[in-house]
């Protein structure tokens, strides 16, 4: 399933009537995108992914740009491991 969440919100100049219709259509698209994102965020929370809304948004955008989701998941796991390892290691005392 592919969601396009990063919508181009530029609205070309039209007559008032056409502009109102275009604005209404764009508002509907934005509303649908927000709703889809909220659903994906809720699913990510249920799956305990540990992703906040901003990080999930970045991941979705990367996937929309063609990044393999499995590779992205692997990279995130590796970064977390590196962070955990760094947090567990004791800081080096530079002043004995």
From TrEMBL:
Sorted UniProt keywords? Cytoplasm, Cytoskeleton
Localisation per UniProt entry: Cytoplasm, Cytoskeleton, Microtubule organizing center
Q: What is its main location?
A: cytoplasm
Task: Tell me which Pfam families the record gives.
Answer: MOZART1
Q: Name one GO biological process term.
A: gamma-tubulin complex localization
Q: Does the keyword field hold Cytoplasm?
A: yes
- Assigned GO CC terms: centrosome; gamma-tubulin ring complex; interphase microtubule organizing center; spindle
Superkingdom is: Eukaryota
Query: Could you say which protein family the record assigns here?
Result: Belongs to the MOZART1 family.
Q: What is this protein called?
A: Mitotic-spindle organizing protein 1
């Amino acid at each position: 399933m592919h969601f396009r969440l990063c919508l181009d919100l530029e609205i070309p100049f039209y007559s008032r009537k056409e502009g109102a219709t275009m604005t209404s259509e764009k508002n509907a698209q934005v509303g649908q995108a927000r709703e889809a994102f909220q659903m994906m965020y809720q699913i990510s929370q249920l799956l305990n992914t540990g992703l906040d809304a901003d990080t999930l948004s970045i991941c979705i955008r990367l996937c929309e740009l063609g990044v393999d989701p499995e590779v992205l998941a692997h990279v995130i796991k590796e970064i977390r491991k590196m962070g955990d390892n760094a947090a567990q290691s004791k800081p080096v005392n530079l002043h004995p």
